[in-house]
Design brief:
The complex is a heterotrimer of chains A (about 220), B (about 300) and C (about 130). Chain A has about 220 residues and is an all-alpha fold. In chain A, about 80% of the residues lie in helices and about 0% in strands. Chain A starts with a helix and ends in a 6-residue tail after the last helix. The relative contact order of chain A is 0.13. The chains are: A mainly alpha (about 220), B alpha/beta (about 300), C mainly alpha (about 130).
Chain lengths: ~220, ~300, ~130
Amino acid sequence: MRGSMIRHLILKDWRLNRMPISLSIVLGLIALLVAQCGVEAVRLLGSVWFFISLCVLGSMLPGVAIVNERKKQTLAFVMSLPVSSVQYTIAKGLSILAMFLFPWLTLLISALVVIETRDDIPHGVIPMLIILAMLPLIGFCIMSAAALVGESEGWLMVASVLCNSSYWFAWYLLARMPSLAANWGRPVAVWNPAAFMVLSSEVGSIALIMAITFFFQSRKRDFI
Amino acid sequence: MTDLATDLAVELRGVSKKYRYFTLDNIHLKLPRGQIMGLIGANGAGKSTTIRILMGLVHQDSGEARVLGHSMPAEQVAAKWDIGFASEDMRLYDSMTLGWHMSFIQSIYSTWDSAYAHLLLKRFGLRADQKIKGLSHGQRVKAALLLVLARKPKLLVLDEPTTGLDPVARHEILRELTNVMADDSRSILFSSHNTQDVEQISDQITFIDRGRIIDSMDKEAYLDRWRRLRLEVPLGIELPALPGIIGVEQQGRLAVATANAFVPDLAQAYESTGAHVQRVENMTLEEIFIANVEHSREEVEA
Amino acid sequence: MHGGFTFSQSDKRPIYLQIMEQIKQRIAVGDWAEGQPIPSIRQLAVDLHVSVITVKRAYYELEREGIIVTQHGKGSHVASTPGLGTRLNEQELEQHLEQATRIAAQLGMRPKELEDRLREAGDRLAEKDLI
């Protein structure tokens, strides 16, 4: 019975947020098409746009799916259903994660396909691509956590500003890491220890963010 | 097996909650199964907070809350299967239709009565294909009520169900609420500052003011305790302070005494002092409420 | 059967008294016969859109006055005492007569004057074919 309440809430969220999801997928795919064009500058523009759409999606979803529920006062409606605040958090977390992962994976996989099919892109960029693509995912988790725990647009905005301004910095740092950057031009994807370390700490930080979120959510005494 | 706890639909014992600018203090409340309780209070008196605590949405600082036998907020999930909640500050999803909400609720609760739901649509003058954002305030309130009524829950908890509604809509809602009472295993707790509605349909009344319960009891017994005595006081007579009288207002030779524990002897008592009792009047719940609040505030300040 | 009950908010008397009066009227007029079953407390409460406790009070008082009988588990019915309707009408007459007497006293009328006035009232009604 419990599992099914979570399922109901997830389906409800997907049904409510059909527009934002479709929109972001479309934007991303356009970005990818642009990335395929021959001219270098246009390709660069396309890749930048690709990451931007992921970042935009990352900050938009928590606002639309989390903060709005409090602002538009529909949270009381949801909490009148037989769910606890923890179940609500699980359902909300899963639904927006899925909402983000779906376009994120689509875009990532499409990028990988483009790299595969085109001869002029070295496969050495693949580890870097994945590591960089994880950044909006981490940012998304941070912003969702801020929206859920902070309960307001204010907190979401703070997190949003922090994340969006940090992406480029992180990107810059990672791109300059000698152990990663060295293998860019290789025809084959190279997964060296440095790459694994960066990737696993990215995944680890996501798990940490989730744990902290649940901790704070479960301790709330005034859920509404 | 008589388990007292399950004969009470709602029981609050010593519930307290402290906020920065408001404290809910030592709330005691009992609603027997099969009855309707009206919770009356001014805005900001603590009605909504009390209701949120008994719904498990807010965790009390101290005291016990039991709803349908379940301890709140610990067992809120179990309890909420049998509770229908609607509050004034609750909103449905603007971009979705009423019909979508109905299907949503129906998919969760097996007690959904489709026939009754459609009957309510007709009675309330609503259409399932309408989006919530296109509804007027009154229609939204009715839509939210439809969603809880059609499920036929054991307990209805309603925060201001008739506030801001036109007289026709109010009448429709009161009618549906009293229809619920045909089943003596179902109960309703509703808050309102519309004393007329409370007076009409409540079995139990609870007055709350500034975070404290002033009175909580059986409505008929309560109404019976209150009277206004209109007195003619001849010059030179001073009205004595009598037990059961909480206030006297005198202007010249006419006085009005308000009794909150009326017995017929009181009229006698006044007559014996030389004052003449012109009339003994019943009071409406509104008059009682105002008199009660003023009296209790005076007591607190004293 | 229970249509036609109405409450006036301008009537300051408690609702249970209004219910009692309207039930008595129906019996007095003969719409509700002696021994006839009447709606259960809960049923009447639902039909009138009032609280159960109010109808309970009304029924309790009516039972005390011997006008209705409630049997546990079997519902309620009008008391089977013969001539109940008549008795209720008599009661109402008594009340009106007392009130008339009291007001007449306030006006300083003597009993003979009151008698004459009563006769006059009867004549007026007869003229209009109302009795």
